[in-house]
Amino acid sequence: IQSKLPGVSTTIFSVMSKLAAEHNAINLSQGFPDYPCDPKLTELVNKAMNNGFNQYAPMPGNNFLKERIAEKVKNLYSVKYNPDTEITVTAGGTQAIFTALTAIINPGDEVIIFEPAYDCYAPTIKLLGGLVKTYELAPPDYSIDWDMVKKLFTSSTRMIILNSPQNPTGSILSEDDMKSLVKLISGTDILILSDEVYEHLIYDGQEHKSVMLFPELRKRSFIIASFGKLLHATGWKLGYCLAPEQLTKEFRKVHQFNVFSVNSPMQQAIADYIQEPSNYTGITNFFENKRNYFRGLLAESRFELLPCNGSYFQCASYSKISNEKDTDFSMRLIKEFGVATIPVSAFYQKATDHKIIRFCFAKENLTLQLAAEKLKNV
Ligand code: PMP
Ligand code: GLN
Fold it and tell me: Where would I find the Aminotransferase class I/classII large domain in this sequence (predicted)?
C-alpha cells in the first residue's frame, strides 16, 4: 500500500512514554500531569451521567458549555464570541486543529509553521496535499523576525499556524510580535490557526496576547483551546475552537462528519465546573511554582536551562555534557539514568542537532525532585 504519510512514524510522545514504562523511568517526556484532577470534576461527570447526559450532544457542543466558554473568554479577554455561531466543542485540541486544516487547506496551499513545532501540524497539512513552509526559530530565545516571515509569503500562502505559549520551547508571542503580524497580514486573505492550548500557562506576570485581541487577526483566526490543559485532565480529550461565523460554518461542515459531536457527560460536567472561575484561575500560579521549583532543582545539574516563559515544558541544552544526537542522548537518559524526556529534534521536519531536550514539569513535586536527583548525576 502506498503510504499517504511516507516518512512519518509513531509520534514521539507514544514512543517515549512506552520506553519510560519499559525501563521503569520517571516520565518527564509526554506532556500530562501525574497527579489526579479535582475530584469535584469527576463527581460532576457522575452527576451528569445520572442526570441522563448519555446520548449524543448537539453537533457543535453542549449549549450550556458553549455559553460558559463564551463567558470565560469574555471575562479573560473582553471579547465576545457567539456560542451559537462561533464556538464548537471538539475532541481535544488535536481534533480541532485537524478539522480547521481540513476545512481550509486544498492541495497546493502553503501553510507557514514555526519550528520546533508541535508534531501534528506538518503531517496534517501534508495529508491534505498542502505544502509546509517552515520558519526556523533559533535557540535560546526562539524569537521571530517578522520580515523574514514575510519572505515566506507567496500567492499560495493560505494559512499561518501560531502557537503561544509554545510547545516545546516555552516561548511566547509579545504584543510587538502580534502588531508586526497585523501589519504583515493586513490586505492579504491569509488565515490563521492559533493554537492557544497553553493560554493560562504564562509566567512572571506576562499576559497572553491572544489573536482575538487584534481585530485584524481575530476576523481570520481559528483559535484552539484544550480542557485537557485547563483541568489537568488530558485523557478527557475535550477542547474547543473559536472562529468567526463564516469560518465556524466551514469548520462544522467537517466536524459533523468527523466526530459529529463529542463526549456528552464530560461536556456537561465541564460546563458546571467552569461556571465557577476560581476552579481554574489558580492554574497559572500552580504551574509557575512548578517551573520555579524544577528550574531550582536543575540549577545544580550540568544541564543549561533555556528560558521558559510559558507552557509546562522546560527545554535544556546538554552540549556541555555530551556530543551525542538528542535521540541517542535521551535514550541513554532513560536506560542509564531512569528519566524520560523528549528530544527536541522530533519537533522539526529536517534533521537538526541543537542538543536540546524537553522536560515536562506538570508533575508532583516529589516526581520532579526524584527526577532531578537522577539528572544531577548526568
Ligand atoms: N497543541 C499543542 C501545542 C499541544 O501541546 C497539544 C497537546 N497537548 C495539543 C495541541 C493537543 O491538545 P489535546 O490533548 O487537547 O488534543
Ligand atoms: N501535548 C503533549 C506533549 O507535547 C502530548 C500530546 C500527545 O501525546 N499527543 O507532550
Answer: 25-373
Give the C-alpha separation, 163 to 29, whole Å. 19
Atom of ligand 2 at shortest range from CA of 360: 10
Q: In this predicted structure, what is the pLDDT of residue 190?
A: 98
Q: What is the bridge-based pairing of β-strands 191-195 and 157-163?
A: parallel
Whether the bond into 343 is cis, omega within 30 of 0:
no
State mean pLDDT over 315-343. 98
Q: Which atom of ligand 1 is nearest to the CA of 234?
A: 14
The rounded Å distance from CA 94 to ligand 2 centre is 10
- Which amino acid, residue 374? K
Domains, the chain, ordered by start: 12-30+282-375 (3.90.1150.10), 39-278 (3.40.640.10)
30 within ligand 2 shell (Cβ under 6 A): yes
- At 132, list the grid cell: 509546509
Nearest to 233 by CA among 41, 93, 81: 41
pLDDT tens per residue across span 50-89 = 999 999 999 999 999 999 999 999 999 999 999 999 999 9
What is the distance in A from the centroid of ligand 2 to the CA of 13? Answer: 6
Protein residues with CB under 6 Å of any ligand 1 atom: 31, 92-94, 118, 163, 167, 195, 197, 226, 228, 234, 237, 239
Query: Which of 32, 118, 360 for a ligand 2 pocket mutation test, highest count of atoms within 8 Å of Cβ?
Result: 32
Pair 347, 119: CB distance under 8 Å: yes
**pLDDT the model gives residue 9:** 92
Q: Whole-angstrom Cα distance, residue 242 to residue 222?
A: 6
- Strands ordered across the beta sheet of 313-317: 304-305, 313-317, 356-360, 342-343
Report whether 159 contacts 191 (CB < 8 A): yes
Judged by DSSP in three states, 358 sits in strand
